[in-house]
Amino acid sequence: MLNAFGKQNWWPADSPFEVIIGAILTQQTSWKNVEKAISNLKNKKEVNPESINNLDSEELESLIKPSGFYRIKAKRLKNFITYFIKTYNGKVKTMSEVDSMNLRKELLNIKGIGKETADSILLYALNKDIFVVDNYTKRIFYRLGVIETNDYEQIREIFEAGLKEQDKNNTIYNFKEMHALTVELGKTYCRKNPICIKCPLVSMCKKKGVKNEYGWN
DNA sequence: ACCCAGGTGGCCC
DNA sequence: GGGCCACATGGG
Q1: How far is the CA of A200 from the C1' of C6 (A)?
Q2: What is the model's pLDDT at position A212?
Q3: Domain membership flag for residue A213
Q4: What is the pLDDT of residues A138-171, one digit of tens each?
Q5: Are residues A174 and A95 part of one domain?
Q6: Which nucleotide shows the minimum CA-to-C1' distance to residue A65?
Q7: For residues A64 and A55, what is the distance between their CA atoms, to the nearest angstrom?
Q8: What pLDDT, on a 0 to 100 scale, did the predictor assign at position A191?
Q9: Do A178 and A132 touch, CB atoms closer than 8 A?
Q10: Which pLDDT value is given to residue A207?
Q11: The pLDDT value given to residue A217
């Protein structure tokens, strides 16, 4: 994937806090639309916990409209920021000092932050060695025959173990690139309706004739 | 006119 | 534990 697509250098953002905002806004949404929403926020105010918390809900909704699901995402942003200010005084550094698996549980208790969003925050905002599993990860590597399970935690542990074993000295970097490259490959060659024939990994495929969401046509 | 996007929670069984 | 649904804008 690195040969096919090059280094991705995720996550594009000016600050770790902006990574978190983007992680919530990009749920089931193309990054292009998220960029518009973040650009609207930046044009309004500096993107920091206090300034976004001080926006009233209707104004926040209207600013993030391009990212879709804007009413529910405005609530999700507020849910996170309320917790973040109350618990960590709005400081990313303070939050990042918490043990990563304990912090993961805390994040998962916030309504609107599920596993992928929590793990994106841990990896890309806080540089924790947690691998992010998304639907492309499941779809691509199921089709390839690399994984047989659909369970998020199992898949996360399989990738974490494999990537650590391959290169212990660049765990965080490799987790970041692996996930970003997986998304890049998925966007181009691994949609729900399979168009895998030009996929750079197609020669590795072990599975044939599987017909379901994670199937091969 | 479809199909899909860097998911999540609620509800039902 | 899974299966289905709402949430919504914008691009191919």
Answers
A1: 36
A2: 44
A3: no
A4: 988 988 888 989 999 999 999 999 999 999 999 9
A5: no
A6: C9
A7: 12
A8: 74
A9: no
A10: 57
A11: 34
Last residue of a domain, one of A125, A150, A166: A125
Which residues are CB-neighbours of A92 under 8 A, at least 6 positions away?
Answer: A15, A16, A17, A20, A125, A126
Cite residues whose beta carbon is less than 7 Å from strand C. Answer: A 28-30, 32-33, 36, 65-66, 68-73, 150-151
Angle at A133 between CA A132 and CA A137, to 5 degrees: 130
C4 C1' to A135 CA distance, Å: 18
Residue A208's pLDDT is 54
Q: Is the CB of A100 under 7 A from strand B?
A: no
- How many domains are there within chain A? 2
Residues of chain A under the 70 pLDDT cut: 194-197, 205-217
Q: What is the pTM of this model?
A: 0.94
pLDDT at position A13, please?
97
Residues A142, A101 share a domain: no
Encode burial over A119-139: b for 16+ CB neighbours within 10 A, e otherwise. bbbbbbbbebebbbbbebbbb
Question: Measuring from the CA of residue A66 to each C1', which nucleotide is nearest?
Answer: C9
* CA A184 to C1' B6, whole Å: 9
Q: Which domain holds residue A53?
A: 12-125
- Are A120 and A171 contained in the same domain? no
Q: Which nucleotides of B are covered by protein (CB under 7 A)?
A: 3-10
Boundary-marking domain end, from A125, A159, A194 = A125
* Cα separation, A96 vs A94, whole angstroms: 5
Strand B within 7 A of A12 CB: yes
pLDDT for A210 equals: 47
Strand B atom within 7 Å of A71 CB: no
pLDDT for the residue A116: 98
